[in-house]
């Protein structure tokens, strides 16, 4: 579902990971509305299976679990939270490399639907709210923010934008508030625990 046709705005495409549009309870227009002023161009948000995110997480981050959100900046920039890999082209966007739109393409945000649903239940809000939290976090990574290295800058921006968008909390705040398990003290998403 494309939103905001003006070239001076953020356009958001929500898909199933194969480029097919999906309904998302207003996620695209919401993200375009709350995005920072410098977020101009196109962004793809893929709502995919936990299995797909696990495979991407394993390939790009060498972590064998389904995380909640991954960000893949356009161009040759390495994917966020990835070490030692380079990204050659968008994975989920329906934008062709010959298109003039590519120059304004910010990148892909990939969200694990199952993880999002579980996190929504645990946080006591709807899945639509969780998707907003994750999409905002992913967009900030596409714009170059990095909560592991920026001394709270991403946290402050995320806090301001999530308030603008009517969200109670952001991903960084929630992760810091949750029990810091080993390997997650710097604000990385916490791997879901296996059901007992």
Q: Quick recap of the structure?
A:
This protein is α/β, with parallel strands linked by helices and 196 residues long.
Commentary on this structure:
The structure is a single chain. With 196 residues, the chain is of the alpha/beta class. The protein has one domain: Metalloproteases ("zincins"), catalytic domain (Collagenase (Catalytic Domain), 3-Layer(aba) Sandwich), CATH 3.40.390.30. The protein contains six helices and four strands, in the order E-H-E-H-E-E-H-H-H-H. The protein has helices at residues 27-34, 50-61, 113-123, 127-142, 153-164, 171-177; strands spanning 10-15, 41-48, 69-73, 105-112. Strand 1 (10-15), helix 1 and strand 2 form a beta-alpha-beta unit. Helix 1 packs across helix 4, helix 3 crosses helix 4 and helix 4 packs across helix 5. The radius of gyration is 16 Å and the shape is globular. Mean pLDDT is 79; it is low at 1-6, 76-102 and 179-196.
Secondary-structure element string: EHEHEEHHHH
Q: Helical region count? A: 6
Summing up helix and strand content along with how strands pair, one would put the structural category as alpha/beta
CATH architecture: 3-Layer(aba) Sandwich
CATH topology: Collagenase (Catalytic Domain)
Oligomer: single chain
Distance between the termini: 38 Å
Describe the sheet with the most strands.
4 strands, mixed
């Amino acid at each position: 579902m494309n939103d905001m046709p003006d070239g001076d705005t953020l356009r958001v495409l929500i898909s199933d990971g194969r480029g097919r549009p999906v309904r998302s309870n207003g996620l695209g227009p919401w993200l375009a509305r709350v995005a920072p002023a410098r977020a101009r161009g196109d962004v793809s948000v893929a709502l995919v299976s936990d299995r797909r995110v696990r495979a991407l997480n394993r390939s790009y981050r060498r972590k064998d679990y389904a995380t909640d959100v991954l960000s893949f900046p356009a161009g040759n920039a390495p994917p966020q939270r990835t070490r030692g890999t380079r990204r050659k082209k968008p994975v989920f966007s329906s934008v062709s490399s010959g298109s003039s739109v590519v120059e304004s393409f910010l990148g892909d945000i990939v969200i694990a639907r199952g993880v999002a649903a579980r996190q929504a239940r645990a946080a006591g809000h709807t899945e639509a709210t969780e998707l907003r939290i994750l999409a905002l976090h992913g967009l900030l990574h596409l714009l170059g923010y990095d909560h592991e290295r920026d001394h709270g800058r991403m946290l402050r921006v995320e806090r301001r934008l999530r308030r603008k968008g009517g969200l109670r909390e952001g991903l960084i705040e929630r992760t810091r508030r949750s029990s810091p398990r080993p390997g997650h003290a710097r604000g990385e998403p916490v791997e879901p625990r296996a059901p007992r």
